[in-house]
Amino acid sequence: MTHTNLTHLQRLEAEAIHIMREVVAQAENPVMLYSVGKDSACMLHLAKKAFYPSPPPFPLLHVDTTWKFKAMYAMREAAARKAGMQLIVHQNPDALRQGINPFDHGSLHTDMWKTEGLKQALDLHGFDAAFGGARRDEEKSRAKERIFSFRTASHRWDPKNQRPELWRNYNAHKAKGESMRVFPLSNWTELDIWQYIHLENIEIVPLYYAAPRPTVERDGMLLMVDDDRFPLREGEEPVMRSVRFRTLGCYPLTGAVESEAKTLPEIIQEMLLTTTSERQGRAIDHDQAASMEKKKQEGYF
Amino acid sequence: MSEIYKTDALIAEDIDKYLEIHQHKTMLRFITCGSVDDGKSTLIGRLLYDSKMIFEDQLATLEADSKRVGTQGEGIDFALLVDGLAAEREQGITIDVAYRFFATEKRKFIVADTPGHEQYTRNMVTGASTADLAVILIDARKGVLTQTRRHSYLAHLIGIRNIVLAVNKMDLIGYDQAKYDAIVADYRTFAQSIGITEFTAIPISGLAGDNITTRSANTPWHDGPVLLEHLETVELNQTVEQDKLFRMAVQWVNRPNLDFRGFSGTIATGAVKLGDEVRVLPSGKTSTISRIVTMDGDLEQAVAGQAVTLCLADEIDCSRGQILCAAQNPVEVADQFEATVIWMDEVEMTPGRAYWLKLGPQTVSATVAQPKYQVNVNTMEHLAAKTLDLNAIGVATVTTDRDIPFAPYENSRDLGGFILIDKMTNRTVAAGLIHYSLRRAQNIHWQATDISRDHHAAMKNQKPMVLWMTGLSGSGKSTIANLVEKKLARMNRHTFLLDGDNVRHGLNKDLGFTDADRVENIRRVGEVARLMTDAGLIVITAFISPFRSERDMVRGMMQPGEFIEIFVDTPLEEAEKRDVKGLYAKARSGQLKNFTGIDSPYEAPENPQIRIDTTKISAEEAAELIVSKLIP
Question: Whole-angstrom Cα distance, residue B353 to residue B369?
């Protein structure tokens, strides 16, 4: 026979599908973490492929902080509906009551809304496996994380005590209360994600494309004034700039880049010619050296 | 200059053309093997740096880190790009498997970076398990060392057929050709001795950049490829895999509605096309491929490495763990294997203990016998061993509790590579490579019969089951079993009573009362009971069956829900007081050895479906209770 040379994207796609099917077969109550970003969009698309013609046999979970971009909220419901999946939204009630926000509470914001919120949601619904869109190329501690990443009953990750992971033979055995975080996009790079979105025509939040948006420059980052909760400092005046986002999170914590890229190829072009890495736009990593590793040990995705 | 730099211009000039090229890239996964001082991290850092995978902010961090903790004075310490976790950075070593990514316009690369110390054999094996190629690093000043042999042996063992011998730090030996040639010749002698027939040797310097991406002027005598060129052009495993026979393990049965039933999985080897005849193992049933379903539309053909959903023309039983294969050349089915076992847990192996064995989507219970030998990974010597401890590699007999379809590891990593999982801790404690089956089952295919077990049961108008009575000698098992059978017979149920004493007059008359013989006694009875349930019968058994693990073994043989454990609970004093057969007296006086309750243990059931307290109710009441619970 003639050989079919699978491309790198075809192999990555097959790997992600294989992983998702393993989780569904081995876990009792899986869920897919859905952050509305491009990696989530990609992961959701792969889930549809993995189980077609069935809808993906698990719900989507959005751990909300109330501080996401408006455009992300608009996209969220539509994406779940189109996939034929249930959408669960969780907001940490303690954070809600205390009015935790990124302007006044610094790293407590991420800790309470995201880390604690995620743990609450997983416990509340008894999910024993959660898909996440993290990639190994994003950050050094992730480069070492397994695809099936075991968590204790208190959601902790122990980087020194990971299970060996051989071939594509994944061990999802666990005791009651323990869980797995599963990363089907582990071996994808940022460029792979963009190429795949382009090739597969995957819908993404418009914020990834450049458009004139009201922004202020603060602490070396361009922040978008997405609603009137944004407290302007003395002398700050929102300026319309043509910007886009390389990564999406809470709008007060996500830096924009000035850009004219209005199509996917233009975005990819800018990305390839650019000289800063993706997570640079996120305030969370800059807190301290090895910050991500510490957050992950505590249960952050 | 290398190809990589030309692409930069294309990105700026014609991004669509660039994307078109890059969408057709293939992917190579490789592993780098070497110890801390061999310059492994430096080499990977160099590949990332030269292929422009490092962004400005990362470079700034790198420069700052190089000054703070680097080992290159004011120069850039590429190794810091690669050394990951905070704790490891401080110790100056990498201690786990880290994956790195870079790409050229021909290929995307995934590098598994693993440490080289002997105590991290498990990490190297983990990294190698998904790799197409291994780069074995040698320090040119030191030549072939013990660790070089160990890394080569492990890479070869795990099935990597593309080996690159990278003789590093050539700058430190003045690019001396004679010294290089001597190292390569030395390695060739060793490589051949362990079965590595081919390898590609390249003189490099990770630090100075010689022969990494570009041909070095310092080694004009080197007429082989430079490292990146070789990585870009070497033949991929997937091409080889496609030439093999078709095999796909079923991961998940896709059943959205009554009109669709598909079998989802990743094709392990070979190719499949519409109309191909396939056989499902272990059931042995055959059918033909009616559809190859993907969300992007049905395919005419699919090949190894693709994740697909296959539909069959006939409605045949097939579930997770079964293997679809070329009908005329199916995989073997067996329950005993010779395998290489790589132990990966701090707690050493217990020969004879039951572990979960996971082979692709199949999970079964398995035991590993005392190793035939252990391999000294530094000298390749075979050593006698009673067990295997962390990082030990040995060859042993592995026995599963049921027949499983498989392929030898050398034919397929997916169908011949298994992991062992500790049943208590759930940790992955070992990796195993199946070499061949040890039982004749490989030549005895399961003959599919047209009258199914459901049909047998339907004709008898009953649900087959096994009523397994366990309890001490003299507890009343046989009496109650007999009464139960009489009651069921009056209800027109088709039954059969297997009694412990009776079976020992025939089927099991060659067995005694040692622990091993007791285990075999129960195994045979379990097999007979299983056949009887296949025939649609309600089987009643009366055996002491003192060990929990054997009762669990029998439960595992039966269809789910068909094994009913009945604990005939009579305290030892009471049974001994009754002593109907006078056996307790003999045991107490020492005339009878290995008597349960006296000098051999009885492990009471933890959660029996039915518990009969014979000190409270009569045998007649007990039988009535059992029948009323089973047939409401």
Answer: 9
Which residues partner with B358 through β-bridges?
B363, B419
**pLDDT(B629) > 80:** yes
DSSP state letter for B559: P
Q: Please state, for a pLDDT cut of 70, what percent of chain B lies above it.
A: 88
Residue type at A299? G
Sheet with A129-131: strands ordered across: A87-91, A60-64, A30-33, A129-131, A179-182, A148-151
Mean pLDDT of B306-323: 93
Q: How far is A94 from chain B (nearest CA, A)?
A: 32
Which regions of B316-411 does DSSP assign to beta strands (E)?
323-326, 332-343, 354-359, 362-368, 373-375, 382-383, 393-406
Structure tokens at B436: 């061949």
- Helices in A99-247 by DSSP H: which ranges? 107-109, 117-125, 190-200
DSSP string, B140-206: TTT-S-HHHHHHHHHHHHTT--EEEEEEE-GGGGTT-HHHHHHHHHHHHHHHHHTT----EEEE-BT
CA A197-B228-A139 angle, to 5 degrees, is 45
Give the pLDDT score at B594: 80
Q: How confident is the model at residue B33 (pLDDT cuts 50, 70, 90)?
A: confident
Position A281, amino acid: G
**What is chain B's alpha carbon radius of gyration, rounded to the nearest angstrom?**
31
Average pLDDT, chain A: 86
**What is the spatial distance between Cα B85 and Cα B387, in angstroms, rounded to a whole number?**
33
Interface of B with A in 339-398 (CB under 8 A): 344, 356, 358-361
Q: Can you say how many angstroms the Cα of residue B554 is from the centroid of all Cα atoms in its chain?
A: 24
Q: Is the pLDDT of residue B84 over 90?
A: no
Q: Among B108, B262, B428, select the one facing A164 at the smallest CB separation.
A: B428
Strands (E), A29-119: 30-33, 60-64, 87-91
Location of structure tokens 């040119």:
B140
Question: Hey, is B488 helix, strand or coil?
Answer: helix
Residue whose entry in the numeric block shows the structure tokens 């030892």:
B572
CA distance B3 to B434: 42
pLDDT digits (tens, 9 = 90+) for B526-548: 999 999 999 999 999 998 888 88
In order of their start, the domains of chain B are 3-235 (3.40.50.300), 241-326 (2.40.30.10), 333-443 (2.40.30.10), 453-630 (3.40.50.300)
Cβ atoms of residues B599 and B587 within 8 Å? yes
Active site includes B365? no
A:115-174 residues touching chain B, CB 8 A cutoff: 136-137, 140-141, 143-144, 159-160, 162-169, 171, 173-174
Give the separation between CA A67 and CA A92, rounded to whole angstroms. 12
Supply the ipTM of this predicted assembly.
Answer: 0.88
Residues 6+ apart with CB under 8 A from B90: B69
Model confidence over A29-51: pLDDT tens digits? 999 999 999 999 999 999 999 99
pLDDT tens for each residue of A221-240: 888 988 888 888 888 888 99
Q: Are B230 and B202 in contact (CB under 8 A)?
A: yes
**Average pLDDT of the segment spanning A117-121:** 90
Position B374 scores a pLDDT of: 93
Q: How close A288 comes to chain B (CA, Å)?
A: 11
Helix (H, G, I), strand (E, B) or coil at B497: strand
Q: Which range in A140-149, A194-203, A267-276, B63-72 is most confidently predicted, on average pLDDT?
A: A194-203
Best of B110, B301, B363, B390 to mutate (most A CBs within 10 Å, chain A): B110
Instruction: Give the whole-angstrom CA distance, residue B33 versus residue B20.
Output: 34
- Identify the structural domains of chain A with CATH numbers, from first to last: 8-193+290-298 (3.40.50.620), 204-286 (no CATH)
